[in-house]
Amino acid sequence: MIEREITKIQELVYELRVGDVMKRGVIKVIPSTQMSDLRAVLRDNRISGTPVVEEGRLVGIISLEDFIRWLYDGGPDCAVVDRMTRKVISVFEDEPLIQAFNNLERFGFGRLPVLARGIGKLTGVITKGDIIGGLLKKLDIGYRQAEIHSTRSSHIFEDIVADKSALIFEYQVSGGDFSRAGNSAGGLKTTLLRLGISPQITRRAAIATYEAEMNLIFFTNGGKIKTKIEPEIIQIEVEDDGPGIPDIDQALKPGFSTAPEWVRELGFGAGMGLHNIQKCSDRMNLSSTVGKGTRLKVEILVGNEDGSE
Ligand SMILES: Nc1ncnc2c1ncn2[C@@H]1O[C@H](COP(=O)(O)OP(=O)(O)OP(=O)(O)O)[C@@H](O)[C@H]1O
Ligand SMILES: [Mg+2]
Q1: Which ligand sits nearest to residue 268's alpha carbon?
Q2: How many other CB atoms sit within 10 Å of the CB of residue 261?
Q3: Burial level of 18, CB count in 10 A (0-12/13-18/19+)?
């Protein structure tokens, strides 16, 4: 089943952070920069827009489109502050790349300003080109590292096969704590690769865990992810005592989401998480009681390389 094929690229956009690929040292203008001076800034740097910054803080964005509109209107010269867009969609350096990617797609922007979390200082800009460049670089390095890991540590897994024991890992996820998003999925992925599990199986386990982890962060007060690794099967159990899901069938439908605005602003809430989990699993079970909590069980068969039955 082609649909289940999870590419290395898809996995990396969850794993890499904006800060890993963004351009630092941005070209920028200040609010009082004159529109008439903007042409040179855009042309000399071959860019189609630039952030407007006041004392390190991002206050707006001015694009080639704004510039052209100003020319077209034929008004007098003015400061960019009068022509810029004030409501800027930006991303934080420590956010997963998938978010920047989602936002670029969703709003059709060419670039997103990148801010340092906390102080809100503008530290760079990210474009689709940066994302692709970063992915390609990482792909090259990642492949080599995965090879080293699987040869160096495959004996660990043979040991487990020999005494038929299982490895169990537990991760606690705090609700609302977006700064640690992706940590459990990342940890599991490293472990599986070190154990010599194939990249394709590892990818499916990591994506399922990532989506479940995001749901814990967005919809609950937190919960627990427990992973059991056996020679033939990887089991992932996710539990929370959050609000519960009233209609499971509906929640599983691609596109269904109750994500609040703050989640959507982060580039999530497309209603694809549970659907992705399903695609990555050989077996999946979701049960929930409103007011009590939700329990998700995912099984991935280690021998089942392409995920098809
Ligand atoms: N652990 C949970 N507790 C309560 N509700 C949940 C939980 N997980 C999912 N849901 C509900 O199921 C819906 C669908 O979840 P799903 O992961 O498919 O999409 P999403 O999280 O809204 O968007 P996306 O995953 O694409 O960012 C959510 O919007 C939410 O209403
Ligand atoms: Mg989700």
Answers
A1: 1
A2: 8
A3: buried
Cβ atoms of 242 and 226 within 8 Å: the answer is no
Confidence category of residue 305, pLDDT binned at 50, 70, 90: low
Q: Tell me the ligand closest to 214's alpha carbon.
A: 2
Q: Take residue 26 and report the two structure tokens written for it.
A: 């941005």
Out of 3.40.50.1220, 3.30.420.10, 3.40.1440.10, 3.10.580.10, the CATH code matching 2-130 is 3.10.580.10
Q: 131-140: per-residue pLDDT in tens?
A: 777 776 776 5
Cα separation, 142 vs 148, in Å, equals 10
Distance 277 CA to ligand 1 centre (A): 11
Q: Which residue has the higher pLDDT, 133 or 23?
A: 23
Ligand 1 site-directed mutation target among 239, 241, 257, 268, most atoms within 8 Å of CB: 257
- CA-proximal residue: ligand 1, atom 9 (nearest): 215
Whole-angstrom Cα distance, residue 50 to residue 43?
11
Q: Which CATH fold would you assign to the domain 166-301?
A: Heat Shock Protein 90 (3.30.565)
In this structure, what DSSP letter does residue 22 have? P
Mutate to test the pocket of ligand 1, among 98, 103, 236, 245 (most ligand atoms within 8 A of CB): 245
251 and 278 Cβ atoms separated by less than 8 Å: no
Rounded to the nearest angstrom, the distance between the alpha carbon of 222 and the centre of ligand 1 is: 14
Strands 233-240 and 283-289: unpaired
